[in-house]
Amino acid sequence: MAVEIKQGGMIMEQRSQAQLVSYNVNNAELCASAARISTTKGNAVEIFEKSKSNEKNQELIQKVLRSGHQTIIEHAVFTFALNNVSAFVEQFFIECRLASFTVKSRRYVDFSGQGYFIPPKLEGEDRDYYCQYMDTLFLAYQAMLEDGIPKEDARFLLPYSFHSNFYCTLNAREMIHIICDMKHGRGKGIPELQDLADQIIEQAEHVFPCIRSLMDDSLAADGSEGPAVDLILSDDEVSFVGLQDIGGVQLLNEPLNPAGILHTAYRVNHPGEDQVPEVHTLLRSARPRELEQISYSFLISNITLSGITHMVRHRMQSVLVPSIREMIHSKFVLPDTIRNDAKSFSLYRHVLELSNDRIKQMGKREALRRYSYYFALSGNVMNIMTTMNARELGNFIRLRSCNRAQWEIRKISIEMLKYLRHSFPGLFHYYGPSCFIDGQCPEGRMSCGRQNEVVESFMHLE
Fold this sequence. Notes:
Elements: E1 3-7, E2 10-14, E3 17-23, H1 27-36, H2 44-51, H3 57-66, E4 77-86, H4 87-94, E5 100-103, E6 116-118, H5 124-146, H6 151-154, E7 163-171, H7 172-184, H8 191-207, E8 239-241, E9 248-253, H9 258-269, H10 279-283, E10 295-304, H11 305-312, E11 317-320, E12 331-333, H12 336-339, H13 342-362, H14 366-369, E13 381-389, H15 390-400, H16 407-423, H17 425-428, H18 434-438, H19 451-459
Parallel strand pairs: 8-12
Antiparallel strand pairs: 1-2, 1-6, 3-4, 4-7, 5-7, 9-10, 10-13, 11-13
Helix pairs in contact: 1-2, 1-3, 5-13, 7-8
């Protein structure tokens, strides 16, 4: 599907692309070996050697899968480069927790020339409305950068049509899950995702021939874009959410006896040991699985779409994120760097008021309502919910409470830690950024240079 791309004031024909750049060369043989190992004599290497060039591999894989044992295809691994896809596509992908992602950062890279996605079926006035909306936002973003606003704050003006580039590595089982989600789940009726799913299937099939037969016949593309999803429109004027209210945190659920759970978990994991070590000793363990037995649930309110991308990259959590397709568009973050600069604030307010008005006008056009997800801005806010265990919380807080972290996700991390310290001070008193935990900063030349001050602040965090 040829796709129009707006870039540098010119229209070009370009396609959102999923390019297979790496894969296991013996995927089929390895999956067939996994299917045989439970019932075949010989060691793992011998079974693999016998599976090479075995004509029955594909038949065996499909037979085992039909019996419900899908783990065998987790040994087949693929890496895709997602090239010039919309940020909406990025958001869709990174919510798949059993894949690995590395994304081009909007904190460090200037996106003013990256371009944006234009749905190929938009024509005439509908297309003009769409492009005027996107052009206005990109020009304002560029003006912000020229006025000295940091990229991490100017990016809040970027619409979710802007080009993203990232790598995605996943096994065959998760790949099938994502394809199904694109074709018949969350991505149903979204042409860009439908096209990318077809690209992934076509390329994967060349190197892993059984991939198509592993899917339901219903996955065959029918060319339908599905029903239009109406914009949620209101008469609300633009409202701003400042630093104080961005990323509000509320602890919703906590274990009743976390210390007792940890002690029991340690005794189960170390049978025969009568003495349970101190918590700080447990934290230094190379395999602190006991920490995974206690979990905490949080409501995070007024988090930006940009903040959500930071949040969902942490894989070992259960996170609920509303659909961008149903977002209310009139509520925006107001970073301090923009609030404190009169010229930038005036431009920011003007552009967002204009954006809000244009969305209301576009909402009256059926062709544009279908693509409402591209109208969302990186600075729009919503509420999400997440549940993490204490081990993943340690990793999350270590990375996100650091002074090098983006200010929004850092605020969220620190607010979560405050709740955790009140809930279970015996454990979470030891949580914080790397300099607090290890006594040294891992950032090298990019260190904030304020280690003593940071350590002192986390010693007395309340």
